[in-house]
Amino acid sequence: MLEVRDLRRSFDGFMAVAGVSLTVPQGSISAIIGPNGAGKTTLFNLITGHLKPDSGQVMFKGREVTGIPPHDLCRLGMGRSFQRTNIFPKLTVFQNVQAAFLCHRGRGWNLFAPVERLYLEETEALLDSVGLLAKAGEVSGFLSHGNQKQLELGIALALEPEILLLDEPTAGMSGAETRETIQLIERLARERSLTLLFTEHDMEVVFSIAQRITVLHQGRVIADGEPAEVRRHPDVRRVYLGEKHDR
Amino acid sequence: MLRRVPWPLLVFAAALFVPALGSRFYTFVANDIVIWALFATSLNLLVGYTGLVSFGHAAYFGIGAYTTGILMKKAGLAFLLAFPAAGLVTATFALVFGFFCVRLTRIYFAMLTLAFAQIVWAICFKWNEVTGGEQGMPEIPYPDFDWVERVSGILPFLGGYRTSEYFYFVTVVLVAACFWILRRIVGSPFGRMLTTIRENPERAEFIGVNVRRYELAAFVLAGTFAGLAGGLFGIFNRGVFPDFAYWTKSAEVLIMTLLGGMGTFFGPGVGAVALILLNQQIVSYTEYWPLILGTILVVLLFAFPGGIAGTAQGFARWIGRRLGRA
How many folded domains does chain B comprise? Predict the structure, then answer.
């Protein structure tokens, strides 16, 4: 589904991503972990076209997509959410998701149809499935942090992606919120047979749902494999998991 | 309750009624307001809806005015052709200038729009053979209204007005049509895409919005309607002058938009009414109009960031809530 080959990117001489390769098979749930500054978000931005790599390739569904702009990528079926919540704050919850439908289904250049009549059912159904239907009319900027993350997921899903890249989907959430969100993501991925790739700092989350884990450290992959393998890997224990997680 | 009142239709009807008051001055002021309202609303497509602040919107107003003026005066073309031509020519210029402007963001975008506007102004100022240079182009003819006299045999209510009043009616009808089109545009999926760009261009890009292309489309549309306003203004003003494209005009229209409220569709129109009426009133008392204007703006920006229309809307909602509770 998604393959990254020897991706590199530096900022002012600092190698943020120094030759990363990884493969995400169709239908899998994969995680990228690593300490702060390991290059997770940069790697995401390279994959999704926000940044152009210095070298390396990104292959998506068998074709090279390196460096193509995000608006084209998301038409090919790649959806993403952001680490810092990224919504349209002055629009209502409903309008946020509806906008994604409008654009994705090619209505964006329609200058004359009244927007209030388009994709009402689709939007409501999707809001229902991410658990925000009751808040459809609220201005999204005033939602709680957890709700905004749910909304972001809703926006991403409206684009009917085949693969979903989630950058720290539970960042800044309480324990209860985290569990709910993870259950939600798992259910949605199953229902829609999505391929998932996410970054996460919460080890509990990672080991509870990921089928494959890639560990980044200083811009390089130091371990890659099933959770049990990764957990045993000596380098991982040394640089990342540390004593705290050594249960 | 207030929502069900067809305000735009009422305003339209009231505007058509102005010449019947019999004062040439009122009609003159009303005509000025109507044209500026369109100009300000066209700018709001960029500032309020797309989040692009243009400091050079007068360029398109000027280009429209010169296009209609030159075509009607020098080529003797009918208004019926010269008016749409203003839109077309302006759209072309907006497409070329916009192509470069949307590649920049924020203050750089604003500065480049200003630079292009000053280029337009300089050309109008210097190109004597075509634009009349510094002296401008006086005596732009009014559209031909002889047909009205012929028709008035059958429809007597049409007859008996002055040419300037006939032109006022034409202006009101054309501006109303433009308002209708603009209203449709901002309420369309396209309009919603522009709003997503204003709110969060990064996210917009990742719901599949080609941000630059949409921005360019908004730029061209805004320019086109400014051009149409300019086309009307040249005739109304009985002459076209380089200062139509000067940066002070760009500032004036931006102030109207802010004063009226860029968060609402009719805000800039309200701003045009307020600013022009204030100007008329204050100028008759004092020569320090800019000082008063500046003071009003300072108060406004701090006390009523939503502008006149935004504040009124908030007030109406507050009343509505009070009534709903009682």
Answer: 1
